[in-house]
Amino acid sequence: MPMQRRHALAAIAAGALPAFAFAQSGWPNKPIKMVVPLTAGGPTDLLARILAQPLGERLGQTIVIDNRPGAGGDIGAEFVAHSEPDGYTLFLGTSGPLSINATLYGNLKFDPIKDFAPITLAADAPFVVVVNPKLPVKTLPELIAYAKAHPGKLNDGSVTGSAAHLATELFKRSVQLDFVHVSYKGAAVATTDLLAGQIDLSFASTPGVMGYIKAGKLRPLAVTSATRLKDLPDVPTVAEAGVAGYEASVWYGVLAPAGTPEAIVARLNTELTRILQDKKVLQQMAQNDFHPLGSTPAQFGAFIKSESDKWGKVVKAAGIKAG
C-alpha cells in the first residue's frame, strides 16, 4: 500500500482547523457511536477500543463501541451507510466490507464507495506465511519449488472470501501454483489443523500464530507486508523472497455516513491523525501487531477504490464463491 502514509502523518496533523468551524453546530454534544462490523474480542474490536478512548478524550465525549457482526462485516457496514450523517455514527471499516465483499457476495445493500465519507486509513496488519514444520521447506522459494514438483498435493486453509484467502490466491496466481484450498469458519480452527498437520500452510494473521512461531510449532517463511516485521526481523517479505510487487494485508479505517459535514470529517481526521502519533497508542498497537497508518480523507477514498479493483480481480480470477 504505497502512499508514503506514515510520513504524511505529521503534515496532516499540522493542519489546524478554524475554531468557528464547529462553534456553529455545537458538535459533539452527545456520545458518538463507533460501529465495529465484527465480534467483540477480535482484532477489529481491539483496534476500535485502542482508538476510541483517546478520541473520546480529545472530543470531550464518550465513544461507544457498537458491535454488529455478520455477513462478513456487511451488517455493520449497512447500518452505518443508512445512518444519519450527523457525526454521531462512525464505522471502523475493514478490507472485507469495503473492498472484497461487493465482488464476493454481490447485491450489497450499500455502496462501499458512495455511501461513506472516508475519514482516515488507521492501521493494517499483514499476514505471515506459515507451514507445519514437518513440511520439508524452510524458505518461500523452497515452498514454491516443492509445490511445483508436487502439483495439487499441498493444501492451505482459511475462511472462504477472507482477506487471508485472497492474499493466498494472489500469491498462487503470482507464482502460478496449485494449492488446494480448505475452507474454515474461523482462522483459529485453521491454525489448529495446521498445527496438527491436517493442512500444510496458511497465510495467517500475526497475532494468531506468533506464539506458535516462537515456540517452534509453526515455521514462518515470509511476511506479506512491504517491509519486515519488528517481531520477525529474520523473516523476509514475500517480495524479498522473489515475488516482486507482492503485498497484502488486512487494513482498517474510520469512516462516517456519506453526507457528514466536511468540518466534522476534517476535525475527526485531525484528531485521529494526532492519536496515531501518540506514544501510548503506538505502544498498544505494536503489542497487538497493528501498524499505524494515517491519510487524508481523499487519500483514503482513493485507496478504497484501488483495493476494490485489486481484490475484485482476484475474486473473479480465482472463481471464489461465498460460503
From TrEMBL:
CDD domains listed in its UniProt record: PBP2_Bug27
Listed name of the protein: Tripartite tricarboxylate transporter substrate binding protein
Keywords annotated in UniProt: Signal
Origin organism lineage: Bacteria, Pseudomonadati, Pseudomonadota, Betaproteobacteria, Burkholderiales
Keyword Chaperone: no
Gene3D superfamilies: Bordetella uptake gene, domain 1 (3.40.190.150), Periplasmic binding protein-like II (3.40.190.10)
Pfam families, per the entry: TctC (PF03401)
Signal peptide limits: 1-23
